[in-house]
């Protein structure tokens, strides 16, 4: 499935989250949402990305934006990941991969000549109207959270 395009409605979702709750995009209407998809809890790039977003959480909060990380890991895995690294952003679990597929980030990847399915590190900025405002695909982690914050400030 292709990535949602700028100006399109962001696909709605309701997913289990860390701390035993659920997160639904529809419940955040009227707020900007930073939705970042990452491959796996507690791996180096994913940890750096989560730590960077957490470090800027107060600044995102000041803009009224909500930051949500999504991976195919379980909510229990997210709880351990958050505790281990003192993360403050919400993490949602998509073990069924329905949201990953709806956003076009569950893709065929290659490593050492082997093909496998995995998450393409991608971030979406969703406006208060529920429309996709910006897409960062094949994200390089260093400086990414700051770039996203600047884009949120310009909404």
Fold and architecture overview:
It is a single chain. With 155 residues, the chain is of the alpha/beta class. It has a single domain, classed as 3-Layer(aba) Sandwich (Glutaredoxin). The chain has 5 helices and 9 strands, in the order βββααβαβαββββα. Strands 5-4-3-8-9 form a 5-stranded mixed sheet. A two-stranded antiparallel sheet has the order 1-2. Strands 6-7 form a two-stranded antiparallel ribbon.
SSE diagram, text form:
Elements: E1 14-16, E2 22-24, E3 33-37, H1 44-55, H2 57-63, E4 66-71, H3 75-85, E5 90-93, H4 98-102, E6 106-111, E7 114-119, E8 122-126, E9 132-136, H5 144-153
Parallel strand pairs: 3-4, 4-5
Antiparallel strand pairs: 1-2, 3-8, 6-7, 8-9
Strand order of the largest sheet: 5-4-3-8-9
Helix content: 25-40%
CATH class: Alpha Beta
Shape: globular
Q: What is the helix tally?
A: 5
Number of domains: 1
Give me the strand/helix succession.
EEEHHEHEHEEEEH
**Going by CATH, what is the homologous superfamily?**
Glutaredoxin
